[in-house]
Amino acid sequence: GKESIAQVASISAADNEVGQLIAEAMERVGNDGVITIEESKGFSTEMEVVEGMQFDRGYASPYMVTDQDKMEAILENPYILITDKKISSIQEVLPVLEQVVQQGKP
């Protein structure tokens, strides 16, 4: 349970506070959730829970930005193309993109 996860995480991190945070994070996201641990530039240890999906890799074009103040691209119910193949040319995905444009969704 949560206690044993906290113990293992505390030993692995060599820090009880971090171990407790990891156990709490695992409890909150469940078995299918994703936990990302990053080194802080400050002195505090904190946890942020994001509902849904979040990509921290940026966007391909500034035209994708939906919030100019925060420079974020936030999309509601977007279509997402997932492939295990390398896309070398726009021509390879153009038929799919044309269908998405007809739907009028991001």
TrEMBL record:
Gene3D superfamilies: GroEL, TCP-1-like chaperonin intermediate domain. GO terms for biological process: protein refolding. Coiled coil: none annotated. GO terms for molecular function: ATP-dependent protein folding chaperone. Keywords: Chaperone. Belongs to the chaperonin (HSP60) family. This is GroEL.
